[in-house]
Design a protein that fits this description.
This protein is mainly β and about 120 residues long. The chain has no helices and nine strands. Strand 5 and strand 6 form a beta hairpin.
Length: about 120
């Protein structure tokens, strides 16, 4: 599975409400990522995944929180698969190998908290 990630790095406008599921669109055969907020202490991004698209295995030195905001996805953490549907979230522990298996089109918010104590 080839990852075609299209990042949009400009943060959302502050002091303005947003319908998060609508700020990012699906792109054919792609994963799209938009930064909501980026700080030295962590960041929050919203991502859209077209059908058949996922993310290959990776490991992060920080805890991450993945929340599905549309559709469903399989998030595999240390070879254990977790099916998440709209409204569900999961904490991916620091240093745990993980990847996202395609399960149709879906959108998610990914929050990474960086701490000096990992």
């Amino acid at each position: 599975m080839e990852n075609k990630v299209h990042p949009e790095n400009s943060e959302l406008e502050k002091s303005r409400s947003h319908i998060i599921v609508e700020i990012i669109e699906y792109v054919s055969n792609s994963v799209v990522s938009k930064t909501i907020i980026k700080k030295s202490t962590g960041n929050i991004s919203v991502m859209s995944f077209d059908s058949g698209e996922g993310l290959t295995e990776k490991t992060s030195p920080f805890d991450s929180f993945a929340q599905i905001i549309e559709g469903r996805a399989d998030i595999v953490i240390e070879n254990s698969s977790h099916l998440l549907e709209t409204g569900m979230g999961i904490i991916i522990p620091a240093h745990a190998p993980n990847y996202i298996k395609p399960n149709g089109r879906f959108k998610m918010i990914l929050t990474i908290i960086k701490s000096g104590y990992e």
